[in-house]
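PROTEIN DESIGN WORKSHEET
SECTION A - STRUCTURE
LENGTH: 250
TOKENS:
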């Protein structure tokens, strides 16, 4: 049984007929071939059209680099029927081609290495005076539970119960369909495009190694770091991967 879908990626729209009993992983493979087929409807913008148009799936969006959204992040192991996809459903896709990611990540990786080298020369972050004044408040009562020795995907709800550098409560919301990170406090919510964040650094909190202190670099210098304290350790790698776009290709 086929279902008609409208796949939307990078301002392009693709009308697709796909089997209801196919899985999310199989849909990602289809999206890979669709986004590489520049000679069809929903082709790349005119500015990219140089020379003859050919079908080339290698130019498309690899499955490992896709965030596919249908009422949340599309599960790879379930079928479209199981997640109740219906005719005319809109499938949102966020992601960049390998060439785009490499072009963006090269300076990010260099910046991250420089930051790590500089950090090695300093005392642990959690002992520095600017951080002690927050950490000495102790662990927030409503902080989310931590799980040692486990790496988990980002939860579907915001990460909450943490402190920022002024000691106020802060929550992190990952809007994957918009490729944004929302940093919310009692006063306001700042909506940041993932690509605008230069780097993410983190360090376990001494005596509470199941929680980390983490900073998002919003500008060219350390003065632009937005610090968040008491991040559950199981989400640290997922946060870095989501923000910095470090995908596994193989």
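SECTION B - SEQUENCE
RESIDUE ASSIGNMENT:
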């Amino acid at each position: 049984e086929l279902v008609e879908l409208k796949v939307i990626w990078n301002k392009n729209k693709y009308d697709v007929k796909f089997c209801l009993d196919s899985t999310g992983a199989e849909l990602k493979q289809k999206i890979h071939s669709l986004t590489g087929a520049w000679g069809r409807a929903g082709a790349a913008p005119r500015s990219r059209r140089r020379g003859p148009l050919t079908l080339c799936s290698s130019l498309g969006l690899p499955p490992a680099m896709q965030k596919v959204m249908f009422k949340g992040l599309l599960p790879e192991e379930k079928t479209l029927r199981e997640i109740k996809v219906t005719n005319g459903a809109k499938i949102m896709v966020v992601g960049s081609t390998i060439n785009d990611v490499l072009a963006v990540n090269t300076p990010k990786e260099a910046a991250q290495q420089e930051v790590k080298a500089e950090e090695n020369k300093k005392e642990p972050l959690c002992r520095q005076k600017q951080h002690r004044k927050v950490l000495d408040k102790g662990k927030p009562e409503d902080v989310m539970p931590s799980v040692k020795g486990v790496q988990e995907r980002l939860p579907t709800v915001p990460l909450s119960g943490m402190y920022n550098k002024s000691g106020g409560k802060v929550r992190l919301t990952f809007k994957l369909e918009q490729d944004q990170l929302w940093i919310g406090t009692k006063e306001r919510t700042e909506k940041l495009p993932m690509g605008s964040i230069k780097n993410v650094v983190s360090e376990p909190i001494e005596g509470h190694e199941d929680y980390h202190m983490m900073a998002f670099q919003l500008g060219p210098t350390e003065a632009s770091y937005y610090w968040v304290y008491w991040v559950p350790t199981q989400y640290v790698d997922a946060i870095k991967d989501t923000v910095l776009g470090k995908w596994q290709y193989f």
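SECTION C - NOTES
Helices lie at 24-36, 98-120, 129-135, 236-244.
The longest strand covers residues 208-217.
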